Amino acid sequence: MHRNRTTLQEHAPTNNKHVYSREQPKKEQIQELYQHITQAIDKHKALPHSQVIIMGDFNANPKGSSAHTPSWKKEIFHFFKKHHLINTIKFFHDSLIPTRVNKEGSIPTSAIDHIYTTQHIIEHTFFSDVHTINPTLEFTTDHKAPFIIIDTNLFFFNKSLKTQHDLSTYQPSQRKKIKYNYNHMDEEKWKTYTERSSLHLNKNIQQWLPDAYSETRPSKYRVNKKWKIIKYSIEATKYDKLVPLKPYKQLSHYKNDTPLSIRRLKNKIIVIHDTLSRFSKRKLEHTSQTSFDLISPRKWDDYWSHWPSLKWNLYNINKLFEMPIFTHLPQQISHQNFRQTKQIVQKGLYTCKELLKEYQLKYDLNNIDKFIIQRNNNIISNQRKMINSIMDRQPRTISLDRLIITNHDTQEQFLTRCPETIASHVNEHFQTLGQSIQDVEAIPHYHNINDIPLQFRDIYRRLSHISSNTYDSILVPITLEEVTSTISSLPNHKASGVSGITYEDIKHLHKDFFDFIVNFFNNILTSGILPNGWNNAHLYPIPKPTDWDPILSNSSILQPNNRAGLSGESTFQPLQHLTHTIEMANLKGRKQELWIGLQDLSKAYDRINTSLLKLSLQRIGIPNKINNLILQLFTNRYNQVITPTGYTPQYKVIQGIDQGEVISPLMWIIYYDPLFAYINTAPIPKEDRFTIIVPRKKNIWDSPLNDQPVTYTLSVQGYLDDTTWVAPSLPALNRLLSMAEDFYKIANIKINKDKYRILTNNTSLANKPVQIQIQGETWHTTTLGRNDCAKILGIYVNAFNNPRPHINKLISTAKFFTSILRRKKITHNHVIYIVNKILIPILEYRNQFSFLTHRQLLFNSPSLRVIALQQILTMMDFLWTADYPSKDELALLSSLKLQQTLLLKRIYAFSSINLFFIPNIDVRITGGYSPIINHIPNLSKSDLDSLRAKRILFLDQVSSEDGSFL
């Protein structure tokens, strides 16, 4: 990859004399110098992959007082900061080091000599410091010299292939990347790797940080140095040729797996077409500017002057076949043999095309057989590839080898294949997310809760019910056992990211190396400082994965309707609440109007305001040291986008958090939690909250007036960035959404209004256009119909609690799999695998809140009923419900070969003497023993509703005391 580097050396005038001219004032001289520097940097930064080093005597201290360093002198340092140039001395020492000795003494007191460089060069820098000039030299100076040590690999790299982006068919090849073949590593090789890793670690420690294990307080410099020791030691161990490399296939600018014989024949057909085109009378007449019969001999000879070479090309085609295709071609083309020769060429073209079809068919059949055999083998070796092949799945990729760019002023569009232009626009897109730089820079920065609008200040105050010792376990030093157990549980064959370190590399390190990693992690924990390299890496080790147990396991820290990723929580809980709400709203005799709004958050993680995230972390009592560590992960970050021609130049991330980070989902629910707290605690009118009150029968002999009322309320339910709003009316839904909009404004959250979906069980407004009004803004959308359903977290819901649309989706899913499998050449093992591993889990998940009738059951057939019965009985053995198995059910269980648990043995023993257990569970209804539904088969839903309405639930209610008569 070509890199553009520039190095600037400057010397600013001192405070005591004019350097450039006696007439020009010193301030103007310095400002003119600043202008030259800024122009040079601006010009160079506009180039792709630009890298800058600027060094010299600035005669100004960035941290100096206004008396010694006026504000206009500091403008150049503000410019460097704006363009993300880094002071190398400060980077490696946490503060500026004085470089100039004042007249009053011999100790340097003023930091006026600096080296500034771009982030990419910093990543390849070993060290930067100041050096005392040897006094025995021929010159004297009152300055110390700053210096920087840079890895030479930054300046020497392999030349890339010649750029071909001017070609219309250009498809850029992927950049060459070193890939290690861990599959070829055996126990002996890993043993050698482990020993070498210790040697390289000790060597790098002695060279770069001899006091690595000292009790010195960790600094930015020491943390960065330890990370580099870890990174370079692992790299050096692999470079010892201990880990074999995967063979690299040099890709051309296009990929073509077609056999050479077919490609040759296609090329020859093009040659025949070109030759045949010269036999066009229209072309002859156009070239000669006369009719065919009147073409003069001179013009005729000029036109056919290339016939010998054309004839040679046609004869050359015969070499591809056993039998010649072109024979008896004339030496010259004349009016007399023109037609006959044209027919010979046409016949040869037809023959070649037929042969091409034959070759192509043979190649396709061989390919089909080859891939079928490969797919059969993949059921054992590569199930994912086998599934993709059978299900016709193609990986979704975005090819950034060409780009359509729109001019926002003229709205004109143009296509570009220039890698530099593509890289520039891609970086701009990911940096601003479709906003202007001005809009991004206008995002407010919240220093404390007083900067937040008044209505949310109480929400962001520290939660009083969270104990101060809740997070004590986070600050406990990390142990070697924690690190080794965590690393051993990591999966293999994962991408290494920018660091180049894979999980396989870490797992096989020496014990001394693990001790150093533990020391490194604890330095981070005690100092609250992260290495700069982690701001660029796509993947990096998480020092303490159990740090977040207090949040993940404590149910009182976050709101109950915002619990994604917490201990024991999954998509089941929010879906259960939503389906329960729909069911309750459509109860016969108690039906209530229900409105559901489904929101689509646009680039939720990328829009997080880190200053507000800090207040959200403080709200739940996260210690400040951990807060700072988290914020360091998501500030001063530099990203690169992978394109077909390599990485784009680095760009500074100015908002949001990385969606791919392990910690990001937890950060999002903490960031989003104040909205749920605001809605849950706000004085919302009763008529704006969806509330269901149902009577709970505690005793069938009591009056209905004594039934216990059960109240259920729901306004908002969230799972990560999926938010569902529930209201009893459309105006109430609009008011809830308006309240949420206040929070979205301060949190920089954008709602995709075009993707709003509204559901209602109001028959008169189903499948009708409605108005959504949020804080004065109005737009129209159409509600879903009575027979329509919306997909929420992978399942389909219907506001009328109508199961038919959902069942149709299940049927269409099964039919889709049937149509796919029917036309595939696969074995019964493939079918079993696809059905058990893909189809059944999909159907189970989508149907987890639905109840099928007897006729809709899949196993409702004589051939499958036995299997279903055995599965149900087996499940009863392991999953006990409120109703323990009866004597008859125990008789059925006894015939099955089940694991005889102690509980099951005792139940069998008691049942043999007619003793049965009735669990004392609160959900049971007092007043009877034997449920009536166990004795009356095939009760319909209307029959059950009628019995419940009459409070008849047990057989005891309709039978004599001895149970002999009704």
UniProtKB/TrEMBL annotation:
<dbReference type="InterPro" id="IPR000477">
    <property type="entry name" value="RT_dom"/>
</dbReference>
<dbReference type="InterPro" id="IPR005135">
    <property type="entry name" value="Endo/exonuclease/phosphatase"/>
</dbReference>
<protein>
    <recommendedName>
        <fullName>Reverse transcriptase domain-containing protein</fullName>
    </recommendedName>
</protein>
<feature type="domain" description="Reverse transcriptase">
    <location>
        <begin position="523"/>
        <end position="797"/>
    </location>
</feature>
<dbReference type="Pfam" id="PF14529">
    <property type="entry name" value="Exo_endo_phos_2"/>
</dbReference>
<feature type="compositionally biased region" description="Polar residues">
    <location>
        <begin position="1"/>
        <end position="18"/>
    </location>
</feature>
<dbReference type="GO" id="GO:0003824">
    <property type="term" value="F:catalytic activity"/>
</dbReference>
<feature type="region of interest" description="Disordered">
    <location>
        <begin position="1"/>
        <end position="23"/>
    </location>
</feature>
<dbReference type="InterPro" id="IPR043502">
    <property type="entry name" value="DNA/RNA_pol_sf"/>
</dbReference>
<dbReference type="InterPro" id="IPR036691">
    <property type="entry name" value="Endo/exonu/phosph_ase_sf"/>
</dbReference>
<dbReference type="Pfam" id="PF00078">
    <property type="entry name" value="RVT_1"/>
</dbReference>
